[in-house]
Amino acid sequence: MFNVDTHTHIISPDTGSYPAAPLGGHRSTWSQERPTDIDGLLRQADAAGVDHLVVVQASTVYGFDNSYVADQLARHADRISGVCSVDFLSPKAVDDLQHWIDERGFSGVRIRAADGTTAVPTPGRGLDDERMAPVWQFLSDRRVPVCIQMHAQHAPILAGLLQQYPGLTVILDHAGRPRVGDDTVLYPSAAGVPRLSETGRVFIKLTPPAVLRAQREAGSAAPVVRALIEEFGAAHVMWGSNFPASAGSLAELADLIRAQLPTLDATDLELIAGGTAGRLYGLGRGAGPGAEDR
Question: Which conformational region is residue 133 in: left (phi greater than 0), alpha (psi within -120 to 50 degrees), or beta?
Answer without folding.
Answer: alpha
